[in-house]
Amino acid sequence: MSKESDELSIIRRRKLQAILKEKKQQEAVREIEEEQQQKRQRLIQEIFMPDAVSYLVELRQTKPHLAARIEDIAITLFLRRQLVRKIPKIGVLQVQRRLEGVEPKIMVKRRGEEAISFYESVRKDLEEQG
Length: 130
Known about the structure:
Elements: H1 2-47, H2 50-62, H3 64-79, H4 89-100, E1 107-108, E2 116-117, H5 118-129
Antiparallel strand pairs: 1-2
Helix pairs in contact: 1-3, 2-3, 2-4
């Protein structure tokens, strides 16, 4: 019986060591990820103007993949030294629209009429003339 209990205690000890080793590895990975996230946040603060940072925070709530993509693009440009100045909110909006595939839209509003797209306005004017 004592031999079996010794073998059981050895097995338990090995399992405990394996579990502790796995926990240490998970903790190390978590610390590395946390450190990388902090570096990313510092870069974001350095790259974007305050209004753009607050917009990205809002965007991250609704479309996290899009916000991350915008941040990735800006960080890549920054690391390649291709950014001349900080990115304002309007720059973030432009990149967002391009990533979403939204074309620019010019709206025309005449007195007493509702706003319509520039394309529709030109078409309407041409129909009235012809």
